[in-house]
DNA sequence: CTGAAAGCGCTAACAA
DNA sequence: TTGTTAGCGCTTTCAG
C-alpha cells in the first residue's frame, strides 16, 4: 500500500511538500501541486488516518455510551447526536453498556487511550468518582442531570415534568393514580424523582401505586395485569414510556377496561404510539438534547443546560384509532 | 501525559519489556513484571491506541453505513451488530448517510485510510463500481442483496416475502389490494421487487394501487387519505413498515373505515405497533442479520447468506387494542 | 529472560 | 517556495 514517501519519490518532491498539498496549505508551486495530485491519483493513495491521529493527538471521533440502542428515547438522542456530529465533521462511536459498570468504565478509558476526543454519557451506572477520575483525560458531557459538578451536561427537566403530570392528573380529579418506572429506585435517579414527585403532589405512600421494571410493551402488559385484575383499579396512570402505556392499555382491555372511557394514561417519549392510540405523552426533546450535547462537547465551554419538556396532548377525536 | 518510555525509565527496564507485560507476553521476570505494573498504576498510564493501530495496521473497529438510525428496521439491525461486535471485541462506528452518495463514498474511504477494518453496508445509493473499487481496501459485507458478486452479504429474502404476502391476500379473496413503498422504484431495488411481486401474483397494472414515499406514520396518514377518500377503497393493503400501516389505519378511521372489520392490512418489521393494533407483519429478523453480518465481516470467508423471513400473524382477539 | 534499534506513516519547526 | 529532520508512541525482529 502506497504511503506519503512513495508519492514524494514518484513526484520528485519531499514528503513535506506532499503533506502540504494533502492538507491544503498555500505556498506550493502550481506545477508540483499538479504533479503530486496526479501521482496521488495514479497510486490511489490515501493518508493513513491513524498516523494522523497519532501525531495530531486528535481523532475527530466522539464516543456515545448508551445502555441500549433499541429504545425510542436513545434513538432520538442518537439521531440528534449523529446529525450534529456530522455537521461538525466528527464521527460517532456507538458504545452500548447494557447497564454494566465494567463495560461503562472500559469505555471511559478510550479517552485515556486517545482513541476518542470526548464522551457523551446517557443513562449509566457509573459512580461520581469514576467519572471524575477520567474526566481529566478528555471532556465528558452528560445527557442526564449529572451529580458530578465538574461535568458539563445537557439534560431534560424530568422532575418538573413529573410534577406537571401528577398535578395535571390530580387537578382533573383522579383518585387512584398509578405510575411506572424502569430500573428500581436504588439504581435509577429518575425513578427516585418519580416517587418524590408523586409524594409531593399526590400522597406520601406509594406502595401498590408504583410498578418498576417496566421497559417495553410486554412489561406494560404484565403490570397492566397487576393493576386491573383486582376490583380496585386505577383511574389514571403515568408510565415511563409509550410502549409501556400501550401494553397497559392492551392488558386493561382484556380485563374489560377501555381507554379512554375508563381511565386516563400518560406516556413518555412522544412516539407515534401515543399519537396512534391518542394518549398524552411527555416529550423531552431528546433530539435537541443530542444536538446540543455534541455542540457542548466540542466546544471548550463548561455548562449545565436544562432543556424544557413538553406535555403533548393529542387531538384524540381525530388521530386516534381508539374511539 | 505518560508514555511507554516514562514507564520504562521509572521501572528501570527497556520499553520492550514494558511492551511485553502490556501485551501479556511470557518470559518476563516476576520482579520486573511487578515493578512495571506498579509504575503503570502510579503514572496512571494507558497505551496510546492510535500508536498501536498505526503499527499493527488494525483498528478493531468496524463501520456501519445506515441511511438513518431512527427507523425500527435499522434499529434492530444495529442492535444485532452492536451485540456481536461487542462479543468479538470490536467497536462500531455509526455512519449515517442520509441516502447521499457523496457521504456514502466518503465513508468507504475510511477503509483506505485504515481507520476501520471493515464496513457493513445497509440500504444505500452506491453504484457497483464504487463498492468494487473500495472492496480491495478492506472487507465489505452487505446487509441487503448485493448486486456486486464479489461482496459478501447477509440479507433477507424480500422477494419471497412479497410473493408470500400477495399470495396470501389473493387466496383470501381480496379484490382491491394496495401496497406502499419508501423510495421510488428508480432508486430502490426493493421497491422494484415489490412491484414485480405484485405483477406476478395479482395483476400487471399497478397504477392506482401503488403508493411510494412512505416512511413513517405521517406518510401512512397521507396515503391513507388518498386510498380512502374515494368511493372505491382497498380491501387489503401491504405496507412497507408498521408505522405506515398504523397511519393508514388512523386515516381510514377518519373516513369511516375500521380495521379489522373493513379491510386487511399487513405491515413490515414486526414492531410492537403491529402487536398492539393486531395486524400481521413481516419479520425479516434484522437482529439476526446484524449478528451474522458482523461474524461474516470479521471472518475471512466469502458468503452470501439469505435469512428467511416470517409472516407474523397476531392473536388478534387477545392482544389488540382494537376490537 | 532482556534490550537496542528499526520502523509504522505522518506533521511541523526550522533552515534554506 | 521547498527540504531536512525530529519526533508522535508503540511493536517487533534480532542479537545477546
Automatic annotation (TrEMBL), chains A, B:
Q: Where is the HTH lacI-type domain?
A: 2-56
Entry keyword annotation includes Magnesium: no
Q: What is this protein called?
A: HTH lacI-type domain-containing protein
**InterPro entries in the record:** HTH_LacI (IPR000843), Lambda_DNA-bd_dom_sf (IPR010982), Peripla_BP/Lac1_sug-bd_dom (IPR001761), Peripla_BP_I (IPR028082)
Q: Which Pfam families match?
A: LacI, Peripla_BP_1
List, alphabetically, the PROSITE patterns matched: HTH_LACI_1, HTH_LACI_2
Q: Which domain of life is it from?
A: Bacteria
CDD domains, per the entry:
HTH_LacI (cd01392), PBP1_CcpB-like (cd06286)
- Is Transcription regulation found in the keyword set? yes
Species of origin: Paenibacillus odorifer
Keywords associated with the record = DNA-binding, Transcription, Transcription regulation
Q: Which SMART domains match?
A: HTH_LACI (SM00354)
Amino acid at each position: 500500500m502506497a504511503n506519503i514517501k512513495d508519492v514524494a519519490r514518484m513526484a520528485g518532491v519531499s514528503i513535506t511538500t506532499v503533506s502540504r498539498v494533502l492538507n491544503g496549505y498555500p505556498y506550493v508551486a502550481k506545477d508540483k501541486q499538479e504533479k503530486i495530485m496526479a501521482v496521488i491519483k495514479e497510486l490511489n493513495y490515501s493518508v493513513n488516518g491513524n498516523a494522523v491521529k497519532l501525531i495530531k493527538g486528535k481523532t475527530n471521533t466522539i464516543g456515545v455510551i448508551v445502555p441500549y440502542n433499541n429504545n425510542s428515547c436513545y434513538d432520538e438522542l442518537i439521531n440528534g447526536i449523529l446529525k450534529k456530529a456530522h455537521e461538525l465533521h466528527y464521527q460517532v462511536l456507538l458504545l452500548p453498556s447494557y447497564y454494566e459498570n465494567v463495560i461503562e468504565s472500559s469505555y471511559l478509558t478510550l479517552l485515556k487511550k486517545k482513541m476518542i476526543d470526548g464522551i457523551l454519557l446517557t443513562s449509566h451506572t457509573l459512580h461520581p468518582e469514576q467519572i471524575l477520575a477520567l474526566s481529566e483525560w478528555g471532556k465528558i458531557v452528560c445527557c442526564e442531570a449529572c451529580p458530578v459538578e465538574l461535568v458539563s451536561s445537557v439534560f431534560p427537566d424530568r422532575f418538573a415534568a413529573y410534577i406537571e403530570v401528577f398535578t395535571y392528573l390530580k387537578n382533573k380529579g383522579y383518585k387512584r393514580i398509578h405510575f411506572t418506572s424502569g430500573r428500581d429506585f436504588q439504581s435509577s435517579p429518575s425513578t427516585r424523582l418519580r416517587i418524590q414527585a408523586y409524594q409531593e403532589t399526590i400522597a406520601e405512600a406509594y406502595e401498590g401505586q408504583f410498578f418498576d421494571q417496566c421497559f417495553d410493551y410486554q412489561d406494560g402488559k404484565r403490570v397492566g395485569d397487576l393493576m386491573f385484575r383486582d376490583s380496585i383499579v386505577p383511574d389514571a396512570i403515568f408510565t415511563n414510556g409509550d410502549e409501556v402505556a400501550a401494553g397497559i392499555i392492551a392488558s386493561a382491555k382484556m380485563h374489560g377496561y377501555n381507554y379512554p372511557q375508563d381511565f386516563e394514561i400518560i406516556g413518555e417519549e412522544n412516539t407515534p404510539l401515543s399519537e396512534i392510540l391518542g394518549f398524552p405523552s411527555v416529550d423531552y426533546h431528546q433530539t435537541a438534547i443530542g444536538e446540543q450535547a455534541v455542540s457542548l462537547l466540542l466546544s471548550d465551554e463548561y455548562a449545565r443546560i436544562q432543556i424544557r419538556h413538553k406535555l403533548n396532548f393529542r387531538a384524540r377525536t381525530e388521530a386516534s384509532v381508539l374511539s
